[in-house]
Amino acid sequence: MSGHGLPLPIKSSLLLENTGARIRHGFFTREGGVSEGIYAGLNVGIGSDDEREKVTENRNRVAAWFDLPLERLATVHQVHSPDVVVIDEIAAAGDRPKADAMVTKIPGVVIGVLSADCGPVLFADAANGVIGAAHAGWKGALHGVLENTIDKMVSLGAERDRIVAVLGPSIGPKSYEVGPEFVANFKATDPAYEIFFKPSEKPGHAMFDLPSLTIRRLTDAGVRAENLNIDTYSDPERFYSYRRTTHAKEPDYGRQISAIAIRED
């Protein structure tokens, strides 16, 4: 893991085709950061035990990629909730309210969500100048964080059929084994969700397809959606993974960021 060079985030073809030059986005990897050891790379997790100065520098590099200062990078204190906040002034970018998604129509603010297996989803309605970013683990996806983000965008003037949404790097179906209680919880919510589970080699357990659930929730909500189909667990060179860290019995883990901004005129 090299700490040299600037971050080179992954981009979505769906977002690029539907946003033009006014909206910029990136699904950042571990590349281009200054953290070391188990955090090696672009760890932006304020909640991690990494050295604060290095996390700050990594976040600074993310903001700089958008040609903006660090104080314009808005993130939230993520708590696996369905809650969405509206960033309605540049000054609010420095706050970290407890929520799992943000929306804004203010140019010159980067909104970003942190992840380490959970699904980062970036949203844009370029025609109406409204963007969103959501952190969707199984709990957030099941309890409505994606739909709530779309509703909040509509409240700011977005049109549902103009919104595009992209699921970035997250844990894939071949890497996410869950127990019988987990499966039962999902089936109790909606019996049709059985399709997101396949039997695993461990008796009574199943492999869970969180990305497919996420895309289904987005399309059912009436927006066009894309899955980048990148598994964080199986790619340690490029991504942090909470589950991989747990299996390796490491003491902590880094977080990558997925972010989007409306350019200032």
> Beta-sheet strand percentage?
15-25%
Secondary structure tally, helices: 7
For the record, the CATH architecture stands as 4-Layer Sandwich
Please trace the helix and strand order, writing H or E for each element: HEHEEEEEEHHEEHEEHEHE
**Averaging pLDDT over every residue, what do you get?**
95
End-to-end span in angstroms? 37 Å
State the major sheet: 6 strands, mixed
What is the total domain count?
Answer: 1
Estimated radius of gyration: 18 Å
Judged by helices, strands and strand pairing, the structural class is: alpha+beta
Uncertain spans: none
Brief overview, please?
With 265 residues, this protein is an alpha+beta fold. 25% of the residues lie in helices and 22% in strands.
What does this structure look like?
The protein is an alpha+beta fold and 265 residues long. It has a single domain, classed as CNF1/YfiH-like putative cysteine hydrolases. Helix content is 25%, strand content 22%. It has 7 helices and 13 strands. It has a 6-stranded mixed sheet, with helices on both faces. The termini are far apart. The model has no long low-confidence stretch (mean pLDDT 95).
Question: Secondary-structure blueprint of this entry?
Answer:
Elements: H1 13-19, E1 23-27, H2 52-65, E2 73-74, E3 84-86, E4 101-104, E5 110-115, E6 119-125, E7 130-136, H3 138-143, H4 145-155, E8 164-167, E9 177-178, H5 180-189, E10 197-199, E11 206-208, H6 210-220, E12 224-227, H7 242-247, E13 256-262
Parallel strand pairs: 2-5, 3-4, 8-12
Antiparallel strand pairs: 1-13, 4-7, 5-13, 6-7, 6-8, 9-11, 10-11
